Amino acid sequence: MSCSCLYDIISIIIDAFYPPRCPVCEKILSIREEMICPECLKRLPLVQEPRCMRCGKPIDSPEQEYCSDCEVHPHRFEEGRSALLYEKGARKAVDRLKFYNKREYIPFFGTCLEKLANESFPRWKPDCLVPIPMHPWKRAERGFDQASLLARELGKRCGIPVREDLLIRTRYTAASKRLGRSRRRKNLRGVFAVPEHIRTDRISIPRSVVLIDDIYTTGATMDEAGFALRRAGVKHIFFLTVCIGRGFS
Ligand SMILES: [Zn+2]
Ligand SMILES: [Zn+2]
Questions:
Q1: Å from CA of 20 to ligand 1 middle
Q2: What pTM was computed for the model?
Q3: Is the distance from CB of 70 to CB of 55 less than 8 angstroms?
Q4: Tens digits of per-residue pLDDT, 205-219?
Q5: Mind listing the domains of the chain with CATH numbers?
């Protein structure tokens, strides 16, 4: 029996016990529905134009270049894009991925990121993808690292290497979801670093990097990661996330 044949049989058995479900409504998908049911696909809160030229957040008028946040606060990245608004079904799907270990949703989120990559990468010309690192304690607590899985899925689809060695989290931080802008920034200050052996061996420092995460909210995480990468010699920093929050607080 060939290896791929065996793989197909195992997939059929697994599907019989754990049939693929829609990441938004959790309905069992029919054979023809690949990743999401048609009703949920129609209602997905896609990020549409006009959007901020820096962080990609939706803005009110096409005359504006930047959102009110990016107008006031300089960021450490050049540009970023997100596929979905962090609300309604998209919010439920991302929360289920993170808090209920729904790793089977990764291919769906990978498709969302791939669409953005196809639009942006010809301009950004990234050398590699870098997932926002999770502290080892948190990884042990959760059992998996969603940013790493998302980066690997996108890397596989786009043929771009994923560098998980480039950035490390230097300390454990409490969840910053409920903190306001300035407390969130303070909470994250100095939390990322490029390991010393990479900083000294500058040959392995890429020129252009795309940071990958599940959600962009205030940009504090991307700014801190961008700061560490820039200090190590990375010239161009971009980001892609599955979701983006509307608010800034
Ligand atoms: Zn659905
Ligand atoms: Zn912006």
A1: 11
A2: 0.90
A3: yes
A4: 999 999 999 999 989
A5: 1-41 (no CATH), 44-244 (3.40.50)
